[in-house]
Give the backbone structure.
Amino acid sequence: MSPTAWTYLDPLGLGITLSLSAALLSLVMLITNRTLGRRLPGMQLAACGVLLASVGFALNMLQAWLSPWVGLVLAVMLMVTGVSLLLGGARQLRSMPAHWGWLAACCAAGLCTVLWFGVMAPSPRWRIGLLSLLLAFLSLLVTRTALGESRPQHQAGMRLLAFAGRSVAVLMGMRSLAAVLGLVDSSVSNSLVNTGSVLASGMALIGGVVGLVLVLSGDLMAFCSTSENMIH
């Protein structure tokens, strides 16, 4: 890859741009959902999850300029908590229990991992490997939840959410393996693994928001159609 092309695929620039875009879209989604009266249970939580994950993603990209407590600990907690909220919100959208206790345990596992391997006994290989594995696992659960949607008005949005979750799961799984093999020693170093992970994760965050938008718009269209039929 030429040096000029590589500058456009710099993980740091890609990560910040995509995460801020996803954060802005999720903020607009939160405002829109609230304006519409929070019609769908779980939508607010899911959009909040994407917002938190996006902010955490951006902080992680800036870790070289931030203290470890912000660029690593806070960033990881926002990402893991965000994906957990997205999972809980998606389950509520399908009228399923969120299992908050179990999701809190996943957040605690992420906190312990980043505290030990990021601050107390720094080891990029173990930190990146274990946290990537945790995020892959949560993303797989998001995919499984979204694929189970059977209501026609929600299927398009949930399928997009499932695609985003599957993409993150695959890339995080590969990233975890790469970390174990010693191929990744930083989240922002210029490498093919980092560039692919950052690009896929950032696009998945944006795709997740668009999926939620499609779920909300599909629900509104179904509601308007039902109301019109009742009038006639």
